[in-house]
Amino acid sequence: MNEKPARPYRQSKRARSQEETRLRIVEATMRLHEELGPRNTTISAIAERAGVQRLTVYRHFPDETAVFQACTAHWLSLNPPPDPADWAAIADPRARFRAAIAAFHGYFSRTRAMWTVSFRDVAEVPALHGPMAEVAAFLAGVAADLVAAFGAEAAPHVAPTIRHALAFPTWADLEAQGLTNAEKLDLVTGWLFGHEGWRAPGAA
């Protein structure tokens, strides 16, 4: 019986090895971003953390932008943001707003380390501009859907208030002041509906 050639197996094994190395580089970048921040994460530091040579990093990623984009995509796959489909069926715009804000506040609590350094460093790290612009576009879409639920007669303050309530820096500022997520939710709801005398369920 003729033996099958070994070349396809060797090629497959090599491809797996390359993919494993690429993932190791991406995960090293992700950990360094959380620990040091993107502006302090160098290609040399990535290579050292991943246990490879700098040339190996460049073999997989032509520049800093490419490796940062891969890092962002991988991190988001592990930490996906809330899905607007989870509250899309809620007809009451007030209840929909609270459901969305509660979901994002919980998400920010779990992922604060990465968002903190990303917002801190974005102005100084061009490689972050694209990924952070995509995040901003996603949040803008979420906000637009929440605003649309109020209909054409929504008060002028509704849109800017919703956009502000969805922003990570807003959550982080309230967090720094010692508010719990439940307290943050009631506060931002008050911003939106306080003029109507809104109160949280069960409030006196």
TrEMBL record:
Keywords: DNA-binding, Transcription, Transcription regulation. InterPro entries: Homeodomain-like_sf, HTH-type_TetR-like_transc_reg, HTH_TetR. Residues 42-61 bind DNA. It comes from the Bacteria. Residues 1-20 are annotated as: Disordered. Pfam families: TetR_N. Coiled coil: none annotated. The keyword Transcription regulation applies. Residues 19-79 form the HTH tetR-type domain. GO terms for molecular function: DNA-binding transcription factor activity; transcription cis-regulatory region binding. PANTHER family: HTH-TYPE TRANSCRIPTIONAL REGULATOR RUTR (PTHR30055), MYCOFACTOCIN BIOSYNTHESIS TRANSCRIPTIONAL REGULATOR MFTR-RELATED (PTHR30055:SF238). This is TetR/AcrR family transcriptional regulator.
